[in-house]
Amino acid sequence: MSEAWELRQAVASDAADIRKLTREAYAKWVPVIGREPKPMTADYAEAVRQHRIDLLYLEGALAALIETILEADHLLVENVAVSPAFQGRGLGRKLMAHAEQIAASSGYGEIRLYTNKLFAENIRFYMAQSYRVEREEPFKGGFITHMSKRIGL
Asked: For residue 88, what are the CA distances in angstroms to 25, 50, 64, 82?
């Protein structure tokens, strides 16, 4: 990527921008599952306090974000959102590589995430990043696909 980009951790004052970007990024899935996906309804003021959210700026604009949680034995990727205006430019891959750095620097050898089974585009994206499907479980009339990836420390 030749464009100027910056990655920084979110602070409390970023919560409204995080919510706006996430709602824009996930809006395309509402007709697919018939409701707002979980990230669209999250409390981002609370999430900024409880989780790590890294914001990716491209040419000064908030373009993407990744929310991660340090669990007992793995890093959980809770949310990856790329603004529709910036999709298709490799930002998701950049953020997933960043998650691997966070996991490794925290001493974890595994990253886990989950997504809606109907978000086939997302599942293909994660599989292309070497994630594998672990299991599926029922959720709000559909299914969640749990995925994981082992990383070298």
From this structure: 12, 30, 12, 9
